[in-house]
Amino acid sequence: MSPVVVARPPRRTAPPAWARIVAPIVVGLLLLAVWILWVDVLGTAPRALPSPIAIGQELVLRGEIIGKAMAVTATNALLGLVAGALLAVVLAALAAASRPLDGMLAPLVAALAVIPIVALTPIFNTMFGASSQFGRQAVAGIAAFVPVFVNVLRGLRQTRPVHRDVLRSVAASPWQTFRVLTLPTAVPYLLTGLRIAASLAVIAALVAEYFGGPADGVGTAIASYAKSGRAALAWAFVAGGIAIGLVFFLATTLLERLVARRLPV
Predict the structure, then answer these.
(1) Residue 12 belongs to a domain
(2) Domain count, the chain
(3) How far is the CA of 28 from the CAs of 23, 40, 243, 246, in angstroms?
(4) Distance in angstroms (rounded) separating the CA atoms of residues 58 and 69
């Protein structure tokens, strides 16, 4: 009887680095071409959807005011991200060290994860004043808190008992165990949580600005110009909000890669 030969599936090779950069650019250009065809050539698009050319003109003409609004929104999102992430790390460390505390925090985190931002914004504006940015920053912080807390808590629990026993056998102190074992294991999870939280913080800040508060920020401008019929300018501010989100995402992704290179394998 002849032996049975099992064919191995071909190995999948990762695409080259240039392809991962060129591919989204090509897709974006195709979408832009379809957009121009729909609005400028066919003329069948809704009135609220202006031409990309008109949006580009508004970006050039109103670049200064768009930049100021982007600075306000980016600051609110950044402060919320930092505050929410720090609080999440502290509470996750306490929850990992204490099972009873973890049981008390779990329903609170679950409740925060489902609270609608549109409900929090008017309440915070009433609590802290309609002229204060703190309400918007608090909303961004709550949005950033949940993914960081969940990921850090999971990372802190990834260490195996056998590894802790090895360190205990060589008389390692709790601080040395945390520095050598627990922290390197949890850092990748922290960075993943930060990458997710960065986008959520920007979205939360934009939505909070859209639903009231001080008369500045990208979200407020979008609401104002959309209601007044200046669709091209409103979409120019939308582009500004997208740019903020991309910057936050790229910054956290770069941080994740830089730290991953320094961590022990």
Answers:
(1) no
(2) 1
(3) 9, 18, 14, 14
(4) 14
